[in-house]
């Protein structure tokens, strides 16, 4: 059985940390149930853009010679639409419905790189309590300025190529912006969740959330410029479901 739901998402080298959380306490999980893998299903879906999407703007990077190497120009990634209207970089996650399930927090870090004077990836997901390992792969100064509303803000300089730093968020929060105050065009966004059921859409707008326990869930698609779309879907034991979200400009 498959259910389908359609919905119309250095400054100085020693830059001080603004509420940095390198030593933040581990989040407390209050759930009691574990997912039974013998009963789980899979949610698949697609996020699309309706209408004619504007062509991505070319970003001006010539202010820093390390960013302007004469290669392919950097493009604005705030609205990327592929063939057939697939919307890239939408963050899709289970917003509600997991009840009292408990999940182990991964110890392996999520990597956020500053490479070619852009953040890679542009949108990413991370678990509450999971480390984020931030790299500077460029031969120039960057600073990493995360601006959450619920978690602690931090703003740290990374003046040397090859530097890394580690941060941890301790509460769920969607769409946390990262920027570089040195290179104003650089942007990335984090979806911070307390469970493993999230994904970022690819070039075709598709995503998969595997191993969902049976239940009825609120699913949300978030996009940095288009907002959010939400809807409900039911996963039956050992069954799959489909969901589709559609965004439009304006």
Straight-line N-to-C gap: 36 Å
Assign the CATH topology: Immunoglobulin-like
Strand % is 35-45%
Largest sheet: 5 strands, mixed
Per CATH, which architecture? Answer: Sandwich
Number of strands: 17
Can you tell me the overall shape?
A: globular
Major sheet strand order: 6-12-11-8-9
| Residue share in helix | under 10%
Describe the model.
It is a single chain. By secondary structure, this protein is mostly beta strands. It has one domain: Cupredoxins -  blue copper proteins (Immunoglobulin-like, Sandwich). The protein contains no helices and 17 strands. It has a five-stranded mixed beta sheet, with no helix packed on it.
Can I get a quick summary?
With 250 residues, the protein is an all-beta fold. The protein is built from no helices and 17 strands.
SSE blueprint and pairings:
Blueprint: E1 4-7, E2 41-50, E3 91-96, E4 110-114, E5 119-120, E6 123-127, E7 131-136, E8 142-146, E9 154-158, E10 164-168, E11 173-179, E12 187-193, E13 198-200, E14 206-212, E15 215-223, E16 227-235, E17 240-248
Parallel strand pairs: 1-17, 2-17, 4-7, 6-12
Antiparallel strand pairs: 2-14, 3-13, 3-15, 4-5, 7-10, 8-9, 8-11, 11-12, 15-16
């Amino acid at each position: 059985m498959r259910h389908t739901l359609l919905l119309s998402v250095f400054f100085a080298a020693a830059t001080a940390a603004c509420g940095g959380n390198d030593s933040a306490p581990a989040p407390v999980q209050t759930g009691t149930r574990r997912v039974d893998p013998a009963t789980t299903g899979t949610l698949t879906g697609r996020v699309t853009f309706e209408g004619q999407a504007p062509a991505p703007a070319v970003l001006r990077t010539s202010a820093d010679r390390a960013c302007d190497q004469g290669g392919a120009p950097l493009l604005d990634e705030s609205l990327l639409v592929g063939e057939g209207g697939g919307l890239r970089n939408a963050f899709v996650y289970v917003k509600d419905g997991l009840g009292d399930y408990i999940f182990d927090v991964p110890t392996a870090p999520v990597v956020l790189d500053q490479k070619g004077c852009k953040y890679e990836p542009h949108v990413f997901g991370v678990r509450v309590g999971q480390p984020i390992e931030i790299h500077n792969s460029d031969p120039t100064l960057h600073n990493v300025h995360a601006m959450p509303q619920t978690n602690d803000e931090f703003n740290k300089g990374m003046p040397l190529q090859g530097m890394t730093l580690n941060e941890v968020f301790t509460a769920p929060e969607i769409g946390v912006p990262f920027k570089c105050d040195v290179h104003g065009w650089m942007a990335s966004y984090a979806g911070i969740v307390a469970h493993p059921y999230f994904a970022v859409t690819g070039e075709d707008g598709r995503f998969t959330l595997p191993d969902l326990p049976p239940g009825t869930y609120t699913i949300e698609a978030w996009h940095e410029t288009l907002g959010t779309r939400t809807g409900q879907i039911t996963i039956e034991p050992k069954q799959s479901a489909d969901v589709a979200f559609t965004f439009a400009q304006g």
